[in-house]
Amino acid sequence: MTKLAVLLAACLSLQGVSALWPIPAQYSQGNDTFWLSSSVSLEFGHGHAKVNAGDSAGLGCSAFGSTHGSGDDSSSSKKIHDAWDRTKDALFKNNIVPWKFHPKGHNFEPSPGSGTKITKVVVTQTGEDIEKPDYQDMKEAYNLIIPASCGTIYIEAESSLGVLHAFSTLGQLFYAPAKKSDAVWGKGPVKISDKPKFQHRGLNLDISRQWYPKETILKTIDALSWNKMNRLHLHATDSQSWPIEIPALPALAEKGAYAPGLTYSPQDVQDILDYAEARGIQVIVEIDMPGHTTSIAEAYPDLIVGRNIQPNWDTYAAQPPSGSLKLNNKDVDNFITKLFKDLLPRLNHHTKYFHTGGDEVNNAIYKLDPGVGTDDKQKIQPHLQKFISHVQSEVKKQKMSPVVWEEMLLDWNITLPQKTIVQTWRSDDASVKTTTAGYRTIAGNYNYWYLDCGHGQWLDFGGPAYQKFYPFADYCSPRKNWRLIYSYSPDQFLTKEQAKLVLGGEIHIWSEQIDSQSLDVMLWPRGSAAAEVLWSGRTDANGVNRTFADASPRLGEMRERMVARGVQASPVMQLWCHQNVGDCELNK
What we know:
By secondary structure, this protein is of the alpha/beta class. The chain has 18 helices and 15 strands.
């Protein structure tokens, strides 16, 4: 344990008062005034911060030894410098005046010039960064201290990932004054020791059913990073469109995209990966297969069986257009090999993982497949096993590990390499089964974490279907409000041994009725509710469920900070409730 960590352990006894989101593992905060100057400098320490634990009670300046180094130190990576520049923008250009969170007429703002002026932030990175870190290699913990009367903020982390998270927290500790100023104010002293509960904290974004400009994806990456999420799962292709350009197979995007120009070039993909990596996020690309692949037929019709069968498409697919990659077909195998040989080397420098899909494979369609000729699942299974084994072999050749949807294991009994990550979505029981089978699991039960639910049906009903589906609620209604999202944990109902295999979870945005114009309001701040569950856990250190009364003012402030930075997030509750804390509770 470092000396800074020892000091934190001795001091984390005061009641935390800041509206931090997600809530840190341990923190306390005093009520003295601090002003952070816009001329604040960033400096770097060497090794561990020199801390005198004997002065820990007051967090006085003597608790800290002198710091060493400057921006020229090897620890001062470009990632940290760029993140600091973004943090300063959030603090001094896009900060909030927190009037919404105080009673009308309340004088909450300190007098200018009062308290302690902070002019320096000292960052000490105690370890080396690891390129494309695997789950066990991600070092995201950090310590943050604002001592009394020192004029300095101290941050310590083993890797730049921890430093980035510390900057996100720092940005929430200060507020803009009502009158224009070159400084922002906060309360202290502050002591924070923080680390995530789950390693995988992600968003699954469907970019195939609707077109999302690259700029929208980058903006979403920013918001994910502010919420300390660390994975963006891009559901990149589906039956409706193929927007990813594959130079080795150029006709895929040329014919499979919705329109010319609505594609992601190799440079676009690289830009997304670089942007995400600079913000501590890994992007996991999914090419779903063998189902959800009809768009391939626009360029290679002979590879797909059951293409857009009408009017009875629902016999052969979960949604139109129907179509699935053929099984027991050498041309399909060669296509997969060529596709992965082009795409995966452009991804494997960034992450070790590639998602191969496998959800909602329709057995009826394979009665039409010359290589299968039956809808009997038991007879289809060996052909599907052969297909999946080839897919996984090609992933391994490109030095990556596969992620699959739960159906491959639970519905089709496919033998998967033990390194495979299984993503569950249909029930909590699915996670029980996948972890019992020994597979690492990413969870996200649709009853809680499907953010597209509650829009109603998007199909046009007529004839007998009109009465059957009236009043046209979608299959996963109702809408998942933030309180429901907040009540779910990816490891709920699991034993301790099973829970050890849960890497974390993902919230999901399927895009039948969502696009770049509505994404923000659908995703935020509901996604933030899941972010706190994934970072902080559904329960506190004493195992007690966090309350809505505690969460709503903090989430409300987080929403305001996102809006100030250009994210069109929805309100958490009516403004009167924020200004009258406790008066909107119902406990009987």
